Amino acid sequence: MWGFLKRPVVVTADINLSLVALTGMGLLSRLWRLTYPRAVV
User: Fold this and answer.
1) C-alpha neighbours within 13 Å on the C-beta side of residue 23
2) 9-21 core/surface letters (b: 16 or more CB in 10 A; e: else)
3) What is the DSSP string of 1-41?
4) pLDDT reported for residue 14
5) What's the CA gap between 41 and 15, in Å, rounded?
6) What's the average pLDDT block by block, 10 residues per block, for the chain (41 residues)?
């Protein structure tokens, strides 16, 4: 039972971490573009 319970939690944790990382990078890129509009990435 513990094996089946642990796997979904790990998968959801990985998905949440990836989403947080993507949103964080998106916000950082937007802030970078606002602070340095001339810089072309």
Assistant:
1) 6
2) eeeeeeeeeeeee
3) -HHHHHHHHHHHHHHHHHHHHHHHHHHHHHHHHHH-TT---
4) 85
5) 27
6) 65 87 94 76 56
